[in-house]
Specification:
Elements: H1 6-16, H2 23-35, H3 40-54, E1 56-57, E2 64-65, H4 71-74, E3 79-86, H5 89-98, E4 103-107, H6 125-134, E5 139-142, H7 148-162, E6 167-170, H8 186-194, E7 197-198
Parallel strand pairs: 3-4, 3-5, 5-6
Antiparallel strand pairs: 1-2, 6-7
Helix pairs in contact: 1-2, 5-8
């Protein structure tokens, strides 16, 4: 009976903790890295270390960045009167790819899901309300995912944002119900941005 070296077992177990990667995929990745003739394993280790050491959350919009505030929040050409509220940093990248939106963002880092233990205090909702309260915000675009959690989050935010005097809009429903923004193509996202409506 052959024993698996502890270093191999540890990497398989660690990779298995990643979303979408089960033990079989983790084993395949581990043995691929073991057989790699290049310096890929070392570059991967260095990239992971840099990811942990260099990235942080933007103190304004809470997206992931290496500089604070992030390049979008620092850009003087962005429209500071519009804030697009998204669930995750990947949603910022998806909308930016359309090249149709030129305002600022606010990343909630999730959606309300009380059954899963995700409540308002677990998200960046208080920070969003403070930004609207403090700034000269004309419009807040609720770009939460078209899922039950995303819709619930938008419905929760709507009266709070309206009470602060902001025009609240929602992305048009060119997006599939139950989908994630990060998987939407540029044309669909562009149409959703252009077709947003007041709530």
């Amino acid at each position: 009976m052959t024993s698996v070296p502890p270093a191999v077992t540890r990497l398989i177990e660690t990779l298995s903790e990643l979303p979408g990667i089960g033990p079989k995929t983790a084993s395949r990745l581990t043995y691929f890295l073991l057989r790699a003739q290049s310096d890929l394993p070392l570059r991967l280790a260095e990239a992971l270390r840099d990811l942990k050491e260099r990235t942080r959350l933007c103190s304004v919009c809470y997206t992931i960045t290496e500089q604070d505030p992030c390049p979008i929040c620092s850009d003087p050409l962005r429209d500071r009167s519009v804030i697009c509220v998204v669930e995750e940093p990947l949603d910022v990248l998806a909308i930016e790819r359309t090249e149709q939106y030129h305002g600022l963002y606010h990343v909630l880092h999730g959606a309300l899901a009380p059954m899963d233990g995700v409540f308002a205090e677990n998200l960046r909702i208080a920070e969003l309300l403070q930004r609207v309260r403090d700034g000269r915000v004309r419009e807040v675009i609720l770009a939460t995912n078209p899922t039950s959690e995303g819709d619930y989050t938008a419905a929760y935010l709507l009266p709070k944002l309206r009470s602060l005097g902001a025009l609240v809009t929602r992305l048009g429903r060119g997006l599939p119900v139950g989908g994630d923004l990060e998987y939407a193509d540029q044309i669909t996202l562009t149409n959703a941005l252009e077709g947003r409506r007041e709530l």
